[in-house]
Amino acid sequence: MRSQFQPARVPTVAARIALSISSLCLGVLVVTTASAQVPSHTPTTVEPPLAASVSIQPTGRVVARVNGSILTDRDLLREMYTIFPYARVHNGFPQAMEAGIRDGAMKMMIFEELVYQEAKRRGATVPPAALSHELAAFRQQFSSSQAFDQFMQTEFHGSQALLRTKVERSLLIDRYLKSEVSEKSAVSANEAKTYFDQHRDKFLSPDSYSFQSISILPPAGGAADGRKRAEDALRRAKATKSYEEFGLLAEKTSEDDFRVMMGAHKNADRSKLPPAVVKALASMQPGQVSDVVEFDTNAYTILRLEAHVPAGTQKFDTIKDLLRAQLEKTKTEQLRSALATKLSKNATIEKL
Predict the structure, then answer these.
(1) Both 90 and 179 in a single domain?
(2) For residues 61-73, b (16+ Cβ closer than 10 Å) or e, as one string?
(3) Judgement on whether residues 154 and 300 belong to the same structural domain of the protein
(4) Whether residues 118 and 212 fall in one domain
């Protein structure tokens, strides 16, 4: 049936040092000279080649400075992939979205650099055991020792010290964000319940129906053909005895997108359903199959009612896990935004 029936990222160490072995073999990113300027977080990511239409072709060009530490177009591209990973399989970023993705990536990598610098300023360190564990996990991502050695030579001139610096940086960022954001954004069940009780108006559910449908859409052969096919589908629908039987018939017979879900419409808002459909559902009992309903010009449907849910307040026990997750997400975004503002206040940031 048609649309009438419808109802900050916290990067990890793995995300920052993830790599593409295939593009490494193609030699996509190459460090130009051993004496080249090294960013405060020398990149370890090797990105897959981009389509010629994509404007970003990473060369190691400096795109920003944060309190003197440089950030390159490689860092920028890595963050863009984190925001929009589908670019890897779609030959680049959608033209209409690229500017927005680039802006978000620039803000993210500057934020992470500020976090890293603040962690260092506070004297934060990474336990040797944790660093060794992360280095071992990173190395295991390679298919062979030869692939790892090639990567090290390409990105770090074979320097294990540079790799350790990169991994240590990622761990410091994660640990700082965990203490300043993740741990502080936790929401207990009691806090969620208090919020629920104080904002009950936000948890009102509309008068709705859960049902299944088999739809026959406007046919090429004209109204008579459509009605005939609908009557044939009705005969078989009336013979079904359960949700599963009706659903299997919907998968084979229905001509709308809901057929892939066994014709199921979960908690469809009454106010958003076609009047003819509402009229039919209102007269039915759960498990009952309707007659043929014409809900649009030469478009027909057959309905099987699962349940009618009157308008009312949702139950806390039903939504508590989702509510906690939503509250924690909101709190996380607020804490990250406040932290970014705080760290940027006295920082010298240049976008080139």
Answers:
(1) yes
(2) eebbbbeeebbbb
(3) no
(4) no
> Domain count of the chain?
2
Amino acid present at 337: S
Q: Show the CA angle centred on residue 137, arms to residues 131 and 141, nearest 5°.
A: 140
- The parent domain of residue 340 ranges over 13-188+329-351
CA distance 256 to 2: 7
Encode the chain (352 residues) as per-residue pLDDT tens digits: 333 333 234 344 444 444 333 333 222 222 222 223 333 443 333 333 333 334 567 788 999 999 999 999 888 988 898 888 888 766 788 888 889 999 999 999 999 999 999 999 999 999 999 999 999 998 888 889 999 898 888 778 889 999 999 899 999 999 999 999 999 999 999 999 999 999 998 888 899 999 999 999 876 655 668 889 999 999 999 999 999 999 999 999 999 989 989 999 998 999 999 999 999 999 999 999 999 999 888 899 999 999 998 988 888 998 899 999 999 999 999 999 999 999 999 999 999 9
Evaluate whether residue 274 is within a structural domain.
Answer: yes
**Do the domain assignments include residue 3?**
no
